[in-house]
């Protein structure tokens, strides 16, 4: 890699917010290590970024739905003597449906991806950063971390963990030269809803989805400033503020209406 450039490691970097973040780092002369499952998508993304921004891009294919893959990723970075200046934990997935009906094994995979792999990578690279006295970490949280999530109970629960975890370790490493930032997007126009099997939900069918380009810019700017968090978008800031002063059961009922399928009545 170019020794004159800093390096950002980004998971989930081939689409959506992760890709837009990768593009922003490339635009700012960072070399990249991009991680995803699909090797063809990784190769296409790397070629596009290298050609446009004249940076070095290393691709690593790992299935972060398994904890072993996260440890393998750390080992590969270490074996190649890559100094990671910025870690972006973007990879994450949801799963739509009533908890009583959903597949527990798919939910456990999502817990591994959204929580376990994020914790493994953060632990590994945070240790290196603290030892050096510099570094930045951006964790993809969500406004889902601030509210109960009927029809998305596992996803909201994992993001609540990510938010609390990020705030805690940020406090622990204060004054070490390392900053930890959480990005809290709302419903964003990415492939998330397709992968989560929730295209029939009201939030998709009737809502206005945010632009991943703007969400990524909000997160990138907050990370560069060393902010604790960034809630992207005015309506999302308002929703978080309202949820802080509204009883939890009321928020849960409101979210139930937002998340339920638009053709629910037709299905009954």
Write up what this structure looks like.
The protein is globular and about 55 Å long. It has a single domain, classed as 3-Layer(aba) Sandwich (Rossmann fold). The protein is built from eleven helices and seven strands. The protein has 268 residues and is α/β, with parallel strands linked by helices.
Task: From the structure above, extract its key features.
268 residues, alpha/beta, Rossmann fold, seven-stranded parallel beta sheet, 7 strands, 52% helix, 13% strand, globular
- Principal-axis shape: globular
List the secondary-structure elements in sequence, H or E.
EHEHEHEHEHEHHHEHHH
List how many beta strands DSSP finds: 7
The strands making up the biggest β-sheet line up spatially as 3-2-1-4-5-6-7
Quaternary structure classification: single chain
How many angstroms does the end-to-end distance come to?
Answer: 58 Å
> In CATH, what is the homologous superfamily?
NAD(P)-binding Rossmann-like Domain
**Helix-strand category:** alpha/beta
Beta-strand share of residues: 5-15%
CATH topology: Rossmann fold
What is the helix content? 40-55%
Biggest β-sheet description:
7 strands, parallel
What's the CATH class label? Answer: Alpha Beta
Estimated radius of gyration: 18 Å
Mean pLDDT across all amino acids: 90
Number of helical elements:
11
CATH architecture: 3-Layer(aba) Sandwich
Contiguous uncertain segments of 5+ residues: none
């Amino acid at each position: 890699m170019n020794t004159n450039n800093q390096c950002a490691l980004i998971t989930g970097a081939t689409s959506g917010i992760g890709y837009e973040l990768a593009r922003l780092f490339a635009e700012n002369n960072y070399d990249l290590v991009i991680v995803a499952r699909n090797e063809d998508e990784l190769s296409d993304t790397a070629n596009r970024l290298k050609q446009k921004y004249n940076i070095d891009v290393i691709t690593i294919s790992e299935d972060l739905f398994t904890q072993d893959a996260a440890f393998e990723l750390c080992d590969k970075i270490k074996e190649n003597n890559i100094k990671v200046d910025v870690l972006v934990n973007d990879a994450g997935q949801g799963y739509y449906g009533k908890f009583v009906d959903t597949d527990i094994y798919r939910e456990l995979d999502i817990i591994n991806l959204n929580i376990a792999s994020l914790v493994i990578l953060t632990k590994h690279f945070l240790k290196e950063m603290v030892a050096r006295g510099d570094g930045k970490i951006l964790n993809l949280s969500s406004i889902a971390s601030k509210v109960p999530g009927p029809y998305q109970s596992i996803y909201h629960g994992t993001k609540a963990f990510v938010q609390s975890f990020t705030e805690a370790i940020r406090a622990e490493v204060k004054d070490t030269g390392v900053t930890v930032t959480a990005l809290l997007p709302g419903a964003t126009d990415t492939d998330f809803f397709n992968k989560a099997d929730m295209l029939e939900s009201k939030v998709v069918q009737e809502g206005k989805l945010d632009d991943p380009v703007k969400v990524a810019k909000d997160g990138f700017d907050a990370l560069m400033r060393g902010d604790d968090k960034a809630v992207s978008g005015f309506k999302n800031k308002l929703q978080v503020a309202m949820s802080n002063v509204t009883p939890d059961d009321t928020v849960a009922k409101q979210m139930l209406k937002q998340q339920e399928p638009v053709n629910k009545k037709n299905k009954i």
